[in-house]
Amino acid sequence: MRIPILKLHKYLLISIQTEIDDQTAIQFQEDLLAKIHKTGATGVVIDLTSVDIIDSFIAKVLGDVVSMSDLMGARVVLTGIQPAVAMTLIDLGIHLQNVPTALDLEQGLVKLHQELGG
Amino acid sequence: MNPRSCVNIHKEWDIVGARQLGREMAKEIGFGTVDQARIATAVSELARNIYLYAENGQVCFEYIYTNSQKGILMIAVDTGPGIKDISSVMQDGYTTSGGLGAGLPGVKRLMDDFDIESTVGEGTKIKAIKWIR
């Protein structure tokens, strides 16, 4: 299974709609970095509105992909984290500090726009 | 007797199967969405530990009832190498696999009751209960 990555001007948009297993998560990590490299995207929004569980492994993959993209010069914002997922992550002891987040896709794009200076 | 439902864990995709079953059973007995997510996440952590460290095992669920409460019991059993030092694996940030080290201490916080038994060379058994509030 592969998660589709859409290009919109200089941004990449990803909406994760499937139940994420480990393999899908790792494949996504590779696909996203390859796409950033290929398109020269400067900003990425990963929308998690449809994701109803993030365990420690998926959290690590997401945190890593933010850092990896950062190294390549692309800013990633995670959006749409569900209330239940946020509560569960904190119970797990995962705070995803240093990971930019926004309430939804729209605000994620606004955040990127601000940070990247238009 | 309460019927028990189990998922065998020996490939990565079984982790997803286990957490789906856990979530469905939690939903069925009346847990709210947040607790369903807590339970599914706890299952995911336990199933992943089996997959990563023991390669083979099982995650089982059953409903439990007392006079005043009902809840779900999950039991994760494997015949893997066992855990030498349980107190260190229960510490936040301890990992031997490059993960976040959030798994077991996280499961303990996500659930209400937590019990772990492990014998080196024989395997590990973890029981965890979540009660409906």
From TrEMBL, chain A:
UniProt domain STAS: residue ranges: 1-112
Pfam families: STAS (PF01740)
Superkingdom of origin organism: Bacteria
Entries under PROSITE patterns matching the protein: STAS (PS50801)
PANTHER family per UniProt: RSBT ANTAGONIST PROTEIN RSBS, RSBT ANTAGONIST PROTEIN RSBS-RELATED
UniProt protein name: RsbT antagonist protein RsbS
Provenance organism: Oceanobacillus sojae
From TrEMBL, chain B:
GO molecular function, one term: kinase activity
Gene3D superfamilies cross-referenced by the UniProt entry: Histidine kinase-like ATPase, C-terminal domain
Key words, A-Z: Kinase, Transferase
Signal peptide interval: none
InterPro entries: HATPase_C_sf, HATPase_dom
Record's keyword annotation contains Transferase: yes
Limits of the Histidine kinase/HSP90-like ATPase domain: 17-130
Keyword Signal carried by entry: no
Protein name: Serine/threonine-protein kinase RsbT
Organism: Oceanobacillus sojae
Gene: rsbT_2
